[in-house]
């Protein structure tokens, strides 16, 4: 069976990595879908986000990385994935994630969403916080892969 883990990955964090590693054990193939997400005005271009996802995930097997635009459920249908995987870091995430899952169910009744809970070490990580810390010169080494750390340093160095 094929699963789809969708996200913007601006940039990919250790939190995303943990969910991907655990989810990859549940499926024959896990597709990591990198959403173009122009409405989020990402810091990194889609090409750079995909490139970093490749670098961070290179040691994992049974993973495929694809960029997509438009609705996540349409992309899932295109690649014949019937399960969406999302990570839950906190009860606050659950509210938004349930809305997303319900809407996706309305849009595509044959696609299920499953949730994996983040480990304690990663439950407080978000891409926005990482960018904020990096922009203020803070140490992000514990939260992202070194390739992402370098990319953020290159952007924020003064
Ligand atoms: N560990 C660490 N951070 C995590 C995480 C985890 N396990 N899971 C999510 N996050 C973070 C993300 O980095 C993001 O952080 P940020 O807002 O600080 O950048 C945040 O949680 C919220 O994520 P979200 O806003 O849901 O974006 P996303 O990048 O995870 O991707 C899509 C969301 C792309 C899946 C969703 O917007 C989507 O499906 N878009 C396509 C359009 C569509 O289908 N719309 C209709 C939906 S009903």
Describe the protein in words:
The protein has 158 residues and is of the alpha/beta class. The chain has six helices and five strands, in the order βαβαβαβαβαα. It has a five-stranded parallel β-sheet, with helices on both faces. It binds coenzyme A.
Descriptive tags:
158 residues; alpha/beta; five-stranded parallel sheet; 6 helices; 5 strands; globular; binds coenzyme A
How many helices does DSSP assign?
Answer: 6
Q: What general outline do the C-alpha atoms trace?
A: globular
Helix share of residues? 40-55%
Q: Order of strands across the widest beta sheet?
A: 3-2-1-4-5
Query: Rg, please?
Result: 15 Å
| Major beta sheet summary | 5 strands, parallel
Give the topology string: H per helix, E per strand.
EHEHEHEHEHH
**Distinct compounds present:** coenzyme A
In short, what is this structure?
This protein has 158 residues and is of the alpha/beta class. The chain is built from 6 helices and 5 strands, in the order βαβαβαβαβαα.
